[in-house]
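sanity check this chain:
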Amino acid sequence: MAELLKGAAVVAALNEKMTAEIAALKEKGISPTLAILRVGERDDDISYEKGAMKRCDTVGVAVKNVVLPADVAQEVLMQNVEALNNDKSIHGVLIFRPLPKHLDEEAVRRALKPEKDVDGITDGSLAGVFTGSGEGYAPCTAQACMEILDFYKVDCKGKRAVVVGRSLVVGKPAAVMLLGKHATVTVCHTRTVDMPSIVRNAEIVIVAAGKANAVTKEYLSPGQVVVDVGINMTEEGKLCGDVKFDDAEPIVSAITPVPGGVGTVTTSVLVSHVVEAAKKAQ
């Protein structure tokens, strides 16, 4: 039976660390503040916004909500981004994407200052991940995977690691971050030949395939640590990951549950980036 790498314990540890850091900042008159920029009324955006606000409130991070209509003009949106860039009381900015189709999302992404990009969407942040320069912030979900590995004391040094998925949101940054932990990393994707045998030979597996139950027992072997990034809905209306949990749990040594794993930690990582940005802005 696999050990469950639950996110709640990781969140508690992050919260404890952040609470102390926030108290120290407030003693200096600095109130860490996140701006959430939302265009329109997408249900998933609103749900994530509520979760982020609740997590911020738990540790004492302030939130400024900027809500624009779905038909907002590009110029108005860009003016709002620029205002947040220039507002010294705002330490981090979260911009919900995708934006409505009439808007130039790339222009918005490029306009945000990396030092306020707490969600890791700008080229500056991604360059910081790949070069180790410290500019900007890593994409939150990719870093959440690393926080889980660190908390549960999974030593990556010299280990064979496989990342399933090559997106800029999870796959590519997670692979680079594993390299930073001295793992030997392979990235698998939709064009990979004989993916099961490659994944099966890994000691650490991060799965961000974006497909429900894509990784089944033929991909898995005893002793593996599996981090399942996927959040999918089955036809029966149940949440599931990219890994078929019932296949994996009897085989691998440790696995993140869905729900209750990576997704739980992601929002706390976002908030920790706001605190870090506030510390840098002193």
Observations:
- The domain at 29-114 is CATH 3.40.50.10860 (Rossmann fold).
- Residues 222 and 252 are 5 Å apart (CA to CA).
- DSSP finds ten helices and eleven strands in the chain.
